[in-house]
Write a structure and sequence with these properties.
Layout lengths: L10 E8 L3 H14 L4 E5 L2 H11 L1 E6 L8 H14 L6 E6 L5 H7 L6 E4 L4 H9 L3
Parallel strand pairs: 1-2, 1-3, 3-4, 4-5
């Protein structure tokens, strides 16, 4: 596939679920499919897959686990941010979902103007849907 993001149009109605736990990916996919009809849902099992899928599809919103093998969520966030900056693309909103205490770097990212958000697992489906819906 073409990795040149400068020739692709943005897809605001597209959500990328990034989590190394298959059950979480399947659950979030089911929740979004039922609550957000018409939204395209992609899934990635680690940050490296997320970066590549974002390069191909330029999602409007990402749900991102933090602790994953291959590439963690914070590193993937920085890679996607750098890609957006290098190609003059809008940075997607990122809803970080984690069951662990987040590092200070994540706390700084979510303290900004409200584009990004941090949710603790387990998360109620209504809270998750509202977080995604308000950022699409």
């Amino acid at each position: 596939m073409d990795a040149d993001t400068s020739n692709q149009s943005s897809t605001a109605g597209r959500v990328l679920i990034v989590d190394d736990e298959r059950g979480i990916r399947e659950l979030f996919s089911l929740i979004f499919a039922n609550a957000l009809p018409g939204v395209i849902i992609d899934v990635a099992s680690n940050g490296a897959e997320a970066v590549e899928l974002f390069r191909q599809h330029r999602h409007g919103v990402l749900t991102m686990d933090l602790n994953m093998p291959v590439m963690d969520g914070l590193t993937a966030f920085y890679e996607i941010s750098r890609m957006c900056e290098n190609h003059s693309l809008a940075m997607p909103s990122v809803v970080f979902c984690t069951g662990y205490a987040p590092p200070d770097a994540i706390r700084k990212i979510v303290r900004g103007p409200g584009q990004h958000l941090l949710l603790s697992k387990p998360v109620k489906s209504e809270v998750l849907v509202e977080a995604i819906q308000s950022r699409l």
